[in-house]
Design goal:
With 264 residues, this protein is an alpha+beta fold. It has 2 domains: 2-143, 2-Layer Sandwich (Fructose-1,6-Bisphosphatase, Chain A, domain 1), CATH 3.30.540; 153-263, D-Maltodextrin-Binding Protein, domain 2 (3-Layer(aba) Sandwich). Helices cover 35% and strands 26% of the residues. It has 9 helices and 14 strands. A 7-stranded mixed β-sheet has the order 3-4-5-6-7-8-9, with helices on both faces. A 5-stranded mixed β-sheet has the order 11-10-12-14-13, sandwiched between helices.
Length: 264
């Protein structure tokens, strides 16, 4: 299954995403909600992935980001289906439209609400991040383990995605920013943000909006690499809870160091 899905994702990227990179026409870009773009590449990729995933697992259901945008009521399938695929056909659409090389194709397989496998492909480099529950995380075919060191607070650097943060929380974090080395603006692509934590490019990332197709793939990848993912109230993350706020770190001690520095 891991290899079959990997092949499907790579084929989708090659056939319908990469040909549109730096070649989109204005009539191939729409605003599906204020500030949220969708392109012909998103829609064609989701259609191709949906067809292929259902062929691989005929009894399964596919919940894609674009389908969910058109029909919000299908979110209920997260808790109803035994085998459910989450699909973000083009994570980082804004980057894609702007010609920035930071976008990803993401897929996760949920069994009764629990993420059991995930894939995140960088189409430009063909580097694939893969995780399977209980079997570890792999990046570019190599087993990856996040650093288990605990940096001092004043050496921490990581992303805080401020766009959807409540104003009060944003102000609190900004007032405490001096406690860490650097707060990054974020990559606008979860499919790049999560792997960056396992490769020590940054120590953490803090998100507010947590749509399941954006975070289920990366959360499993981080966890299988030895990292730590939890809601801001310290409760475990699950893709079915529809909560807000998520802190991701290279390990549990770093998670608490970031919480102490920026959130309390």
């Amino acid at each position: 299954m891991i290899e079959s899905v990997s092949e499907l994702i790579r084929r989708t990227a090659a056939e319908v995403i990469l040909p549109k990179y730096l070649a989109l026409h204005s009539n191939e870009i729409e605003e599906k909600s204020p500030g949220e773009l969708v392109t012909i590449a998103d829609r064609e990729a989701e259609a191709l992935l949906t067809k292929g995933l259902m062929e691989l697992l005929p009894a399964s259901v596919v919940l894609g980001e674009e389908a969910a945008a058109r029909h919000p009521e299908i979110h209920q399938r997260l808790t109803e289906e035994a085998d459910l695929w989450l699909v973000d056909p083009l994570d980082g659409t804004s980057n894609f439209v702007e010609g920035k090389p930071c976008f990803s194709v993401m897929v996760a397989l949920l069994r009764r609400g629990e993420t059991v496998a995930s894939w995140m492909l960088d189409p430009l480099t063909n580097k694939l991040a893969v995780a399977e529950r209980g079997s570890g995380a792999y990046l570019g075919g190599e087993r990856i383990v996040a650093s288990q060191a605990t940096p001092a607070a004043n050496t921490l650097r990581g992303a805080v995605l401020t766009r959807f943060l409540p104003p009060v929380l944003r102000a609190e974090i900004e007032s405490r920013a001096h406690r860490v080395l650097e707060i990054l603006p974020g990559l606008r692509c979860a499919g790049h943000e999560y792997p960056a934590i396992t490769t020590a490019e940054q120590h953490f990332a803090l998100f507010w909006r947590t749509e399941p197709w954006d975070h289920a793939p990366g959360a499993l990848f981080i966890t299988e690499a030895g990292g730590w993912v939890a809601r801001l109230d310290r409760t475990p993350y699950t893709p079915v809870d529809q909560g807000k706020g998520l802190l991701v770190a290279q390990n549990e001690e770093t998670w608490y160091a970031v919480e102490s520095s920026l959130l309390s």
